[in-house]
Amino acid sequence: MVIELIGGVGAGKSRVLRILREEYGAAVIETDQTAGELERKGRAGYRRLTEAFGEGILGADGELDRKKLAEMIFSDQTVLERVNGMIHPLVWEEVYRKVEEFRKNGPQDTNLLPLLVVETALPEERKEAGSRGSQEDREQPEDQEQADGRESRKDQEQSDVRKKPGDIYDEVWYVYTLEETRIGRLMESRGYSREKCLAVMERQPTEEEYGALADRILDNNGDEETLRRQIAELLGFCERQLQECGWPH
């Protein structure tokens, strides 16, 4: 089963992922990390960015200077749009490849629930065009780690391998957290001002937009035990569905 986990910055998706990993053995794709690795030296995203903006965005080690790029992005909306257009398709192509691989091979331990979770703040793959599909917080690209695996310029010419946008998931789960709670978390964990929190959140879908995409909603306004019970309930439902389909084999 493949689940997309969506929710805005500060919603606490990392808490949900930790529970799914540690307690259920879930495989996880974090699209922020996927985007970040694409921007490493020699990768497709790196090539696109340096061709577009020149070597001035590189550090002394030849790697992307993420702080410089972040400053450019947040001082000019058109730069953000260009970066989105270059990186976004690569991210979702890689996500789709990994999902297909998981569906084909499943987990290494066949006794584990065959569960893959794709985490993203911006589920832009459902749109024909738009922002970078996975950057929870684009002004902090230094935290990103990603993988591309495409070593030639052919990646710029290949069409998107995905089928219909959004059709790769069996379920979409939305991590719902009150705006004020999210702001408080960001101010505490990242040292953001309230103004910066609001500016970042304004770039992301609204609560209503997230909810419209979701099959299930996890309320993450309480303590971790409450969240854990919700996850157990949802996964129990998923496991029953899988058993009806003949799992475990």
Ordered list of secondary-structure elements with their pairings:
Elements: E1 2-6, H1 13-24, E2 27-30, H2 31-38, H3 44-53, H4 66-75, H5 77-105, E3 116-120, E4 171-176, H6 179-190, H7 194-202, H8 207-213, E5 216-219, H9 224-244
Parallel strand pairs: 1-3, 1-4, 2-3, 4-5
Helix pairs in contact: 1-9, 2-5, 3-5, 4-5
Summarize this structure as a short list of keywords or feature phrases.
single chain, 249 residues, alpha/beta, Rossmann fold, five-stranded parallel sheet, 47% helix, 10% strand, globular, disordered C terminus
Concise structural overview:
With 249 residues, this protein is α/β, with parallel strands linked by helices.
Q: Report the average pLDDT across residues.
A: 79
Order of helices and strands: EHEHHHHEEHHHEH
Q: Could you say how many structural domains there are in total?
A: 1
Number of helices: 9
Largest sheet: 5 strands, parallel
Q: What is the structural class?
A: alpha/beta
Instruction: From the 3D structure, determine the CATH topology.
Output: Rossmann fold
